[in-house]
Amino acid sequence: xxxxxxxxxxxxxxxxxxxxxxxxxxxxxxxxxxxxxxxxxxxxxxxxxxxxxxxxxxxxxxxxxxxxxxxxxxxxxxxxxxxxxxxxxxxxxxxxxxxxxxxxxxxxxxxxxxxxxxxxxxxx
Amino acid sequence: xxxxxxxxxxxxxxxxxxxxxxxxxxxxxxxxxxxxxxxxxxxxxxxxxxxxxxxxxxxxxxxxxxxxxxxxxxxxxxxxxxxxxxxxxxxxxxxxxxxxxxxxxxxxxxxxxxxxxxxxxxxxxxxxxxxxxxxxxxxxxxxxxxxxxxxxxxxxxxxxxxxxxxxxxxxxxxxxxxxxxxxxxxxxxxxxxxxxxxxxxxxxxxxxxxxxxxxxxxxxxxxxxxxxxxxxxxxxxxxxxxxxxxxxxxxxxxxxxxxxxxxxxxxxxxxxxxxxxxxxxxxxxxxxxxxxxxxxxxxxxxxxxxxxxxxxxxxxxxxxxxxxxxxxxxxxxxxxxxxxxxxxxxxxxxxxxxxx
Lengths: 124, 356
Prior knowledge:
The structure holds two protein chains of two kinds. By secondary structure, chain A is α/β, with parallel strands linked by helices. Chain A has one domain: Rossmann fold (3-Layer(aba) Sandwich). Chain A has helices at 15-27, 38-47, 66-76, 109-120; strands at residues 7-11, 31-35, 53-57, 81-86, 101-104. Chain A has a five-stranded parallel beta sheet, sandwiched between helices. In chain A, helix 1 (15-27) links the parallel strand 1 (7-11) and strand 2 (31-35). The longest helix of chain A is centred in the N-terminal third of the chain and has 13 residues, at 15-27. Chain A starts with 6 loop residues before the first strand and ends with a helix. Chain B folds into two domains: 12-124, 2-Layer Sandwich (Beta-Lactamase), CATH 3.30.450.20; 130-355, Histidine kinase-like ATPase, C-terminal domain (Heat Shock Protein 90). Chain B has helices at 12-19, 39-45, 68-78, 126-170, 174-199, 207-222, 242-262, 305-316; strands at residues 25-29, 34-37, 84-91, 99-107, 117-124, 204-206, 229-235, 239-241, 270-278, 282-289, 319-325, 330-337, 351-355. In chain B, the strands form three sheets. A six-stranded mixed beta sheet of chain B has the order 11-12-10-9-7-13, covered by helices on one side. Chain B has a five-stranded antiparallel beta sheet with strand order 2-1-5-4-3. A two-stranded antiparallel sheet of chain B has the order 6-8. The longest helix of chain B is centred in the middle third of the chain and has 45 residues, at 126-170. Chain B is rod-shaped. At the A-B interface, helix 1 and helix 4 of A face helix 4, helix 5 and helix 6 of B.
């Protein structure tokens, strides 16, 4: 939380999709942070202790893909909620940390904001 | 041919048959001495034909046939305890790549109870196996490439969808926003098809699963109160090609958007039915709502992009559009009668799904 707003970190390597995701997060009333890969996301999480939710792509350059990033975050910052999206048609939710949500691309904006609202309210 | 008093002469014809065998073949005595080797065996495994007769199997060549496993299997075959059928062994030779062999052995059944002789057929499958591995690798590569392409298509569609939604959030007028949302629905309709196609192995699409997913997606983004409005999909077991399904999907998208936008003003409750059925030479797609119905005459709305899309696609599918009063509501049916006999498959059985 920051100034009463939930903080959402968007991790996405495609600049236009990242821009769209940030726009979506801001229009839903949250504060948005952005990273273009897992390494940058981890640096941000180390600097700020107020990130409530991470919305990450899967296929990204760098040392970790989105699935490994999700596990890393769950391990290191357990309270952070996780939302994962990928162009790969089906990713087993079982390959993701328990409690995280998966959406295939292209996603519906409202499906993402609905999921964020539910997760930030503490519902699965 | 070397000889000793205990040796028996084999019939010349038997030896000739073995020597002339096209497949590598060894004719062996009970104690695993070579009575005859086919010319193909000598050629395949680089053994001088004049050296083989009455040599022990284990002494052939440079001793590479001295395989304890093979000897024990042949002995078991000779004693009648086993049969070697398609047994795989590796032939290891000095300074040469190992060869993968498939061996078959049996006791010669010629009525001679006194002497046991064995026939050992050897097939070199090294090249065949390598080819099969190569083929498997090619198939795997192709599948990975296809997955990569599908991944890229999904990402590209996400870029388009993101841009459209950002524009929709920024524009000032409701009308412009409506157009951008419609464009977004069309992109998502094609994305639904892409998802079905990536699950399909032959490029054909199960229409029911596709239209259910499509209408779920439309409903989720356009219906704010699912208890007031819902979409029911009733499609038979038709399986159609990608080209036909993309057209049918876009037609459904336009008709459902239209019904949701104009059919239910003032919080009116209702339902939209999407139906598709096909026979041997015909198919019929209907989108029926129980809304306020289409204004006729001078009040009829100006044809927009949506109806243009529906007309163009229906024409392309050789379908006739019929708009009728569903009392209450509107029934838009596209029907197609094929005279050439190339209709989408019809497999029977109906199913229902309600989307809200």
